Write the structure tokens for this entry.
Amino acid sequence: MTLPVLEVTDLSVDLRSTAGPVHAVRGLDLTVARGEVLGVVGESGSGKTVTMLALLGLLADGADVRGSVRLNGQELLGPPRSQLRLLRGAKVGMIFQDRRRLSIR
Ligand SMILES: Nc1ncnc2c1ncn2[C@@H]1O[C@H](COP(=O)(O)OP(=O)(O)OP(=O)(O)O)[C@@H](O)[C@H]1O
Ligand SMILES: [Mg+2]
């Protein structure tokens, strides 16, 4: 079998908030094969954005991210962030949801 482009196994993300810990993502599994397009849908607050930010290592330092994220077979969750920085933009990217706030005038 060809290696999946993206393989997420048992991803859980806990965030800190002033009201206490937020269990934003629990036990998520997903696989994206080469040439496949995956759409993720869910109600507001169900964890779509937090999931994608976790995959790219873009959550704040206080976030507790557990599980496994493999991009072309390479584990992203264990290595230091400096390694992930080399992959972002080159091998993986994100189009942010809040585009009005990010637009350059
Ligand atoms: N920075 C944060 N600090 C604390 N809790 C957060 C933070 N960001 C998101 N959350 C919480 O994490 C959960 C998942 O939020 P997320 O933004 O991932 O949802 P979403 O599925 O992307 O929603 P939407 O469809 O509205 O974009 C929600 O309960 C949200 O309130
Ligand atoms: Mg969102």
